[in-house]
Every structure is written in structure tokens, then in C-alpha cells.
Design brief:
Blueprint (H helix, E strand, L loop, with lengths): L1 E5 L5 H8 L10 E3 L5 E3 L26 E5 L13 H18 L6 E3 H4 L13 H6 L23 H14 L11 H14 L10 H12 L1
Parallel strand pairs: 1-4, 1-5, 2-4
Antiparallel strand pairs: 2-3
Length: 219
């Protein structure tokens, strides 16, 4: 897997200091600054502590199965902003090499919020997943042409909610099918929206969100 993060810190210098501090118990294989400068911190063949408590498609020890890239960005808050073109170009160049060396398929290029939806939001809705997929890294859903499913939220029926949960679990998210539109369901839907429908992230499985999920499952 390739897992993308933002640092959530004010500068790359502060992020480097933390990522290189053994007492912090957090690390990543790479850090990319906003100007495109890339720092190699942990050898790709070694385990880095970047994902924390996480899950994807039956795998729980994500740190042992992934390469983590931190992107300098202050993160959600008043200073959260889009990732600059220089940073994205550096990411694309680095990621292409990683995918080639480790035979990582598109469906295993993920955000931290995908593997830990109840805890994390990064890299967030301002990250250009569509542009990354256009560069051959990761996935992006096709345009929806057929009628979209009816929207679904906390007031939805048990059967429909269970079907949605099954779809989210098939896609890879850590979610059980209990038929309740609970906090875990809302978090998984919000994570999906951040990645594939970033214009509106609310955790509600509206028709467009459900249609995009179904389209990706069909590919």
C-alpha cells in the first residue's frame, strides 16, 4: 500500500524534527515540502510508524504493509489549503517509482483517512486525488451517467443501510453490517467522500456518493 498524509504542522522543519524524534514514536518513509523538496526518512524496506491504528481490506497492521508519505500542510483548521503544484509534481514523481518498485495496484493508493476514518481526515478534501489518478497513481470514479440510487442517512431503513455497509466493507473500509447508520458508517462515508467526492463531505450517503461507490466496485 501507499498511504498519503499531511503533516498537520506549521512547517516542514517542524515536521522533520518530529518525524526524526524517537520519543515521538511517529515516522514516515518520505516527507515532501510545499516547494517540492523531498526528504527520504525511512528505507522503503523498513517499517515506519505512520498509519497508527488502521485497517484496509482485511489487513490491520498497515504500517508493515505500506509506504507512508507525509505532505507538508497545516491540515484542517484556518490555514488548511490546497497542495501546491510543485508539491504535487514531486509526489507524482516519487509515487511512480514506489508503485513500480513494489507493484502497488491503484486501489491500494490510499489516504490516512481511508485506513483510519474514525480518527483521521488527511490528506483531506483539498488534496487533488483526481489529478493524481490522471497521472496514473490511484483511482478515480467514472462520470455517473445512469440514474443514481436514493440517498441514505441516519433515517434510512435497516436493509438499505446494511447494503451500504456491505459495499463500504467490500471497498476496504473497516465497518460491520449492523443495519444502523452509526458513527462508524458516517465516518466511512465521509472518508470515501474526501477521496472521491470532495465537493461535499458530510458523511451522508446521498445518491451521488452511492453511485460513485457502486461504480468503483463494478470496475
Amino acid at each position: 500500500m501507499l498511504v498519503l498524509h499531511y503533516t498537520g504542522m506549521a512547517s516542514a522543519a517542524l515536521a522533520l524534527e518530529r518525524l526524526c524524534d524517537p520519543a515521538a514514536q511517529v515516522s514516515a518513509h518520505y516527507l515532501i515540502d510545499e516547494d517540492g523538496a523531498a526528504y527520504a526518512l525511512v528505507a522503503e524496506g523498513r517499517r515506519a510508524w505512520h498509519a497508527g491504528l488502521s485497517y484496509w481490506a482485511g489487513e490491520r497492521d498497515i504500517n508493515s504493509r505500506s509506504i507512508g508519505i507525509e505532505l507538508q500542510n497545516p491540515g484542517h483548521g484556518p490555514d488548511y489549503h490546497a497542495f501546491p503544484p510543485e508539491q504535487m509534481r514531486a509526489l507524482i514523481e516519487l509515487a511512480r517509482g514506489i508503485l513500480a518498485r513494489h507493484a502497488i495496484p491503484p486501489e491500494r493508493v490510499l489516504g490516512h483517512s481511508d485506513v483510519a476514518p474514525s480518527r483521521k481526515q488527511d490528506p483531506g478534501e483539498l488534496f487533488d486525488w483526481q489529478g493524481l489518478a490522471a497521472a496514473g497513481i490511484g483511482r478515480w470514479p467514472p462520470a455517473l451517467r445512469k440514474p443514481q440510487p436514493v440517498g441514505l442517512g441516519p433515517a434510512g431503513g435497516e436493509g438499505e443501510t446494511r447494503e451500504l455497509q456491505h459495499q463500504l466493507a467490500r471497498f476496504g473500509y473497516a465497518i460491520g453490517a449492523n443495519g444502523r447508520y452509526d458513527a462508524a458508517t458516517r465516518a466511512a462515508v465521509a472518508a470515501f467522500q474526501r477521496h472521491f467526492r470532495p465537493v461535499a463531505v458530510n458523511g451522508l450517503a446521498d445518491g451521488e456518493t452511492r453511485g460513485l461507490l457502486a461504480a468503483l466496485l463494478d470496475r
